[in-house]
Amino acid sequence: MKRREFVAVVGAATSTWPLGLLAQSGPGRAPSQSSSAPLVGFLNSASPVTYRFNADAFREGLAQAGFVEGRNVQIEERWANGDYAQLPALAKELVAKGVVAMAATGDVAAARAGQSASSAVPIVFTIGGDPVRFRLVESYSRPGGNLTGIAFVPNQLGAKRVQLLHHLAPRVVRVGL
User: Fold this and answer.
1) What is the pLDDT of residues 36-45, one digit of tens each?
2) What is the model's pTM?
């Protein structure tokens, strides 16, 4: 499946979740938790004691998009507590529970665990490295597969900044960083 098709399918699916659940709850009543609410997985290699803010920010972002835990979405968390060997089993556990999407946060190991657990479940990662180099995606412009995410790659950002500067001021021959 191509990236645009993937985004369209996921976008269409997520945009209908709240509407379907509101219809089930009836007019004038708040939607209640439903076993048919989509299940979203959250996977992190660290401990919830030290990285609870990641899961809280994840929930806040979902809520801002209209997905409120207990109303129209369910969230399952899995934490490896620093034991990286547990990550593949935890990711498989989330897939077996039927998650419709997974957030693999914190590092490359969590993203790889999600990648090995399923080739169908959409996985969004946050890493501090190059997802192409780590073979999480094929390229930045066409990630391919079921993974996409956010990567902090300062080397590539620096190169893009110089390229942009060159386009804006083509006569500049010396640049200080």
Assistant:
1) 899 999 999 9
2) 0.70
